[in-house]
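ARCHIVE RECORD
Type: protein–small molecule complex
Small molecule: flavin-adenine dinucleotide
Source of inputs: curated submission
Record status: active
Notes field left blank by submitter.
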Amino acid sequence: MNYRRSIHWFRRDLRVSDNTALLAAAAASVEVTPVYILSEWSGTHSWTGAGRQAYLCGCLASLASNLSQLGARLIVRQGDALSVLAQLIEETRTEALFFNRDPDPFGASVEKRLQAWCKERGLGFHPFKDIALHERDEVLTASGSPYRVYTPFSKAWFALPKPKPRRRPSRLSTPQDIASLPLPTLAHWKLPASEGPSSLPESGERAARARLRRVLRDVIPFYAERRDQPAGHTTSRLGPDLRWGVLSVREVFHRVEELARECGSAAIRRGCRVFQQELAWREFYLQILWHHPEVLRSEFNPEYRGLPWEVRPRHFRRWTEGTTGFPIVDAGMRQLRETGFLPNRVRMIVAMFLTKDLRANWRLGERWFIRHLLDGEIASNNGGWQWSAGVGADAAPYFRIQNPWTQTKRHDPEGLYIRQWIPELKNVPSHDLWTPPAPGQSAGPAYPKPIVDHAVERENTLEWFKNFRARRNAG
Ligand code: FAD
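STRUCTURE (tokenized, with ligand):
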């Protein structure tokens, strides 16, 4: 053993199995203090949504129970991470700090300050790779720079050997008498439970692992064909588990790899591959954020910085309420509010609608999503919004504007998804759900008229982009 006492700082790795830094802390120390630090954000913070925080509360409760089975106790503290850790280190006479690295610039800046603080005091400082299969500088072009386009990134990403899942520590012991706050509830963030979804997926490692088993059996075999159909359970819905690290990405990747190896079916193998490509998208956006933290403030593509987004609060409100008069958009926005989930295809449709039909700033949508999605994750969310707005890395070019009506015909032709979320349209013929209504009409009797005409807005947006580009090039 190298240390008598160390700390494992839990962040977005809320599990005991296959947790790189936790395992290393357990191997190197006689006693480990596992700590989670609650933010001091309140309900008004743009990243704090009731569903998201409620899910986090469930994950922490389950983590505390799993740690106690190993003989340890989760210590909950609140405040600025550096001050809280400094105090805890002194209080417990800790010799080393273990944690898994965070790609977001706020997390990374705390790590930097902590490193300096530990160095000054001669404490062990042990950051680990854990939340991604490959970290910031592992997947680079031949000239050593980060990729800006997904396809070559994913080729290089697939070519690298993947780290294997590890076991859980067999035992952990926490020093006695360390004060801890109680496990948080929504009240901690001053959030009313009524704001979040009425029900949440069960949280915790056991539930997540059961979900993964179901996904391998019922989703992956059909994933390549069905993942763009919004009705039904056609994608894994493992986003929140990956976001909070309740499952390790290594475990997810390798279980899928095993299925591909053992299934004996080309269709299932294809499902496995397409699913793994989505994990590569996750890492593509993580590395974009690692290398270009400025994307949280500005467009990735400098050509589009300064676009004069339009401000029409009434339109934005209708989008958030799911009353735009575009059935696929409204179904998505209602599902998001009610469940905290939205299928990828519908995320793209509602995001393009907001940015291309309403010409609203993508940041408004980015903020709305992060508050409402259970899997809200700043790298993928920012990447998805910039992609949809046509301003990001490997983005859809500005002139590719999805038509919500034809998207509906292609992906929800019988209106199964729309009818599930918009009861007013239950008895409307499918044809009316994917055909623009006549001027002044709506898709159904108790349903609003479209707030804009897609064909007209498409032309306006093309003009708007062209004018901006021309002005830029002239200036
Ligand atoms: P599956 O299809 O089962 O995919 C498995 C996992 O792969 C996902 O859980 C996720 O971790 C990853 N993944 C899948 N697609 C993508 C993608 N396009 N980009 C990055 N990772 C992907 N994903 C988030 O995790 N958090 C977000 O906040 C988020 N915001 C988005 C916003 C917009 C506007 C768009 C277009 C996409 C966004 N995505 C986000 C990506 C994607 O929509 C979700 O990851 C996916 O829908 C989650 O559902 P699932 O778990 O069933 O995914």
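CURATOR ANNOTATION: Strands lie at 3-10, 29-38, 75-78, 96-100, 124-128.
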